[in-house]
């Protein structure tokens, strides 16, 4: 009698999927690409993109955008782009500013003069108030400057 009860218990145990939960959980292999650098990562079923980035040593704040990915599949490649290092309009020197293509010594000095007169820049668009910087130049340099 005990043997029959044990058999029914095991059949129910297997049919309900409990055995499957005891199996070894296979890791998924993915690749994370940041700019031109590749990181091959083993991912657990409950990993998040933030956990993965931390594991490979990438600071989330250094990325332009982080995708909202909830699940991963074998061989998946996730392409990410890092933020460009920007030159601060409020703290940089004239020499720093001349590193930006399109900003020479005169425009750099004009930027510093504007910063002194107005105490600080509130937005990158304020560069339009500086002689020699128009919408086209601003459009070309706006990704390289910050407040």
Automatic annotation (TrEMBL):
Gene Ontology CC annotation, any one: type II protein secretion system complex
Pfam families, per the entry: HHH_3
GO terms of molecular function: DNA binding; isomerase activity
EC number: 5.99.1.2
Limits of the Helix-hairpin-helix DNA-binding motif class domain: 95-114, 125-144
Domain of life: Bacteria
GO biological process: DNA repair; protein secretion by the type II secretion system
UniProtKB keywords: Isomerase
NCBIfam families: competence protein ComEA helix-hairpin-helix repeat region
Gene: topA
Species this chain originates from: Erysipelothrix rhusiopathiae ATCC 19414
Protein name: ComEA protein
Enzyme class: isomerase
């Amino acid at each position: 009698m005990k043997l029959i009860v044990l058999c029914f218990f095991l059949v129910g145990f297997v049919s309900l999927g409990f055995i499957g939960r005891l199996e070894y959980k296979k890791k998924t292999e993915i690749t994370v690409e940041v700019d031109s650098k590749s990181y091959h990562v083993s991912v657990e079923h409950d990993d998040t993109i933030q956990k993965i980035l931390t594991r490979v040593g990438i600071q989330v704040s250094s990325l332009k955008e982080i995708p909202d990915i909830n699940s991963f599949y074998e061989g998946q490649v996730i392409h990410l782009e890092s933020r460009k290092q920007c030159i601060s309009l409020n703290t940089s020197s004239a020499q720093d500013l001349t590193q930006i293509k399109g900003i020479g010594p005169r425009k750099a000095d004009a930027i510093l003069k504007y910063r002194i007169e107005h105490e600080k820049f509130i937005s990158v668009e304020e560069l339009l108030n500086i002689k020699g910087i128009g919408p086209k130049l601003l459009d070309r340099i706006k990704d390289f400057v910050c407040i």
